[in-house]
């Protein structure tokens, strides 16, 4: 009597399906292009809003009918205009690899800014004083939702949070901070403070 064994058949089907998915000819152009199919996360909308010099985008978040606890379309952050977000995210990663959301009066923010300053980084970290903006409350809620970090400072390296002041101090103490900065394409000329503040 002949019985088909199901295990191997399923395994082969899975492998074929996998290969088909990754190597199908009509998908080649986008995988070769790589960056073209970059999935741009929502945080790049916020980073665009705070790093771009276009003054009109400054007040988009202070509008009344916006719920920062829900996912927002990237277009919202660009005041409704159509942007090439892949291009924009690549630009932000390069021009502003480190963005610090800070509160101007907050001692933890001051400590983090001082530590980063002593690394003498090029391009310099972009400092956003959230309390001096009219959309500060909304930014706080957006950062909480998108990074899981609800306090200030919130240090963003190429779209990902590395945490706040204590996290930064710890990364400095363990000598990982320099690598993080360099991996983000930035150049530290200093070594940071000798003693952890
Ligand atoms: C968007 O920008 C990327 C990267 O610069 C580029 O490869 C792509 O062709 C652009 N897409 C459109 C629709 O212009």
UniProtKB/TrEMBL annotation:
Its GO biological process terms?
Answer: cellular response to oxidative stress
One Pfam family cited in the UniProt record for this chain = Glutaredoxin
Alphabetized InterPro entries for the sequence: Glutaredoxin (IPR002109), Glutaredoxin_subgr (IPR014025), Thioredoxin-like_sf (IPR036249)
The molecular function terms of the Gene Ontology recorded here are: glutathione disulfide oxidoreductase activity
Q: Where is the Glutaredoxin domain?
A: 98-161
Q: What GO CC terms are in its UniProt record?
A: cis-Golgi network; fungal-type vacuole; Golgi lumen
Q: Which PANTHER family match?
A: GLUTAREDOXIN 2
Q: What is the name of the protein in this document?
A: Thioredoxin-like protein
Q: Which organism is it from?
A: Coprinellus micaceus (Glistening ink-cap mushroom)
